[in-house]
Structure formats: C-alpha cells, structure tokens
Write a structure and sequence with these properties.
With 210 residues, the chain is mainly α. The protein has six helices and no strands. It has helices at residues 7-15, 23-43, 55-90, 97-138, 144-170, 175-207.
Amino acid sequence: MDLSKTVGNYLDELSTNTPTPGGGNVAALCGVLASSLGMMVCNLTIGKKKFVEVEAELIAMKNKLVGIKEKFRQLAQKDNEAFDKVMLAYKMVKDTEEHQTERSNAIEDATINAAMVPAEVVTTGMELLPLLETIIQKGNQNSLSDAGVAVSLTKTAVEGAFLNIAINCSSLSNQTFANEILIREEMKYEEIKERTAQIISSILKKMKPV
C-alpha cells in the first residue's frame, strides 16, 4: 500500500465506488496492524528489568515482525494490482474467435493471480501467529489486551483473505484447480480460527480477577 497517503486519504478511497482498494487490501492491512501491535508489545517489554531474561528473545521477535509487517504491506499493494489486471483482462477486445480465446485466457490467468495474492496473506498470517503467541507468553503482561487485538487482527486478515480466495476461485474455468486451492487454503484458515480462539480464551482467563 502507498504509505505516502494519510489514513484519511485511504479511508476516502476505500469508501468510493472504485474496486480498489477493496476487501483484499483491507485484509492485508489488518496483517500490517497486527504486526505493528506485536512490535509495540515487544517495545514495551525490551529494556524493562523485569523482563531482562527474555529480552534477547523479544528483540528477535520484534526483528521478525518487521519483515512480516513489510510483507503484509507489499501484499496489500499486490492485491490492488492483481484486481486491476483482472479488470483489464475483462476489457480486452472480443470481436473475433481468436480475441475471445485470448481474452478468456487472460481473465483466467489474472483471476488465478488474484487468488494467489490473498493465499500469501493466509500464509503470512500463519507465520505471524506463533510470534504473537510467544510475545503473549513472555512479553509485558500489562499489554495483554494489545497482544489480543493483534491476534484478532491476524484472524481477520486470514479470514478476509480466504473470502477473496473463495470468490476468485468461484470465477475460474478450471474448477478442479480452483478446488485444490480452496481445500488447501481452507485447512490453513480453519487452523488459524481454532488457534486464535484458544489464544484469546487464554488471554481473557489471565485478565480475569482472581
């Protein structure tokens, strides 16, 4: 995504009738936000005497989160570009049989790519969640709610990405290939749903009064 824009500019664009940025972009943005919150909890832990024994590990977690945050940011931009390519393919001329074939192939290829970008968001979400689990266990416990929001956003990123995978796969001519993608990504999505529910439950138990 274009970081030169203000949040206000982004929200204004999101609100218009243009197809990009759309849900896939927002899903990746949730990953950016989740990573940023994870980094915040690390920064609230690093340098504190109480957490000196885990400081090196939290620094390592923070460094990994920097890379994951950037990956999500790039995927947000790629999602826009992928959808724009689908739209361009639909605008191709179809006045001859040859042109119709070229157009159909271009639409299929662009739609596959549009499904693969959110699939990367799902994979990146799976990379992020174990880091957040470690931060929750070993980081500053006064920031448990912040870490919990990061977990929730990770689930939202993955769920939003899976919805975009599903809608793109529904448009593919090769439904055998589409189903292969869906089955693979749905397994990841279900795993994330289960793990995030468990993590949020454990956080809430920690925060309940004794």
